[in-house]
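Pilot study result, target chain (81 residues):
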Amino acid sequence: MFWELELILFIFLLITAVIALESKDLLVAAVMLTAFSFLMALLFTTMGAVDVGFTEAVVGAGVTGILLVVAIYQTTYTTED
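Predicted structure:
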């Protein structure tokens, strides 16, 4: 029904996934995974699965994103780069 919007969301999904995979910084990767999850929630909503989109937004973009960022700040990490 909204194929133009879905196409744009798919393109942004690919961009956020590539950035998350290629990033050397853990914080950037965590933020990109949170953005990916939020875009998935928008995509589910446009496809008509509002309950799945809401669950993805709360669990995927909300709780998981916050837990990843807190875990990164609570630990120390070094890179060999």
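One observation from the pilot: The chain has a mean pLDDT of 89. A full batch analysis is planned for the follow-on phase.
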